[in-house]
Design brief:
Layout lengths: L12 H6 L2 E4 L2 E4 L9 H12 L9 H19 L4 H11 L2 E8 L2 E8 L5 H16 L4 E3 L8 E3 L12 H19 L1
Antiparallel strand pairs: 1-2, 3-4, 5-6
Helix pairs in contact: 3-4, 3-5, 4-5
């Protein structure tokens, strides 16, 4: 399995899906478009492995098409939560799966079901977005750097995280401010 080339991983599945597009050296990269030296399906396999979904879903062309549909819907919904069209696109992805209540040996449980298993990762990401909205919608952020397209779920105590990564975008902003101050002197 190829290494995940993305600069930010480990976010909730919905945001991690959005973060399959990032900027490197001023160029937009896409894990699913072969820009990283991987084929599109290899990029999908890397993402499934990174998110812990590889044991449940296959990396194939149909799954990729559905995941790209979910990514476009989620990108619109995150960018403008009031966009009715974006909500309809997310709902269209959610139409392909459901949660079935079950009774297990351990007690009550849930099982996800899909009308077509290739919709599984897309549905999982859309469902995770609903969970984020239900839990803390004000903690879903885009990185404050103008040149960054990454998103994150702010888990800081006071909810004031601004950067996808303090080591990358945050450090660049600090360095830029420092340079501007020293230039003024």
């Amino acid at each position: 399995m190829a290494a995940d080339p993305r600069p930010l991983t480990g976010e909730p599945v919905a945001l991690d899906l959005l973060n399959t597009r990032w900027v490197a050296d001023g160029e937009l990269q896409d894990l699913f478009a072969g820009a990283t030296g991987l084929t599109r399906v290899e990029g999908l396999a890397v993402w499934l492995e990174s998110t812990g979904l590889a044991d449940r879903f296959r990396a194939d062309a149909a799954t990729l098409v559905h995941l790209l549909t979910a990514r476009a819907a989620l990108a619109r919904a995150v960018a403008d939560p009031a966009d009715a069209g974006a909500r309809a696109l997310v709902d269209a992805v959610l139409e392909h799966g459901r949660i079935r209540a079950t009774l297990t040996a351990e007690g009550p449980g849930e099982r996800t079901e899909f009308d077509d298993p290739t919709w599984g990762p897309a549905w999982t990401a859309a469902r995770n977005y609903l969970e984020l909205l239900g839990h803390a919608p004000d903690r879903i952020h885009k990185c404050a750097s103008e040149s960054c397209v990454l998103h994150f779920h702010d888990t800081s105590r006071n909810g004031t995280r601004r950067w996808c990564s303090m080591a990358a975008c945050g450090n660049r902003a600090k360095a830029s401010r420092h340079y501007a101050r020293t230039r003024e002197r």
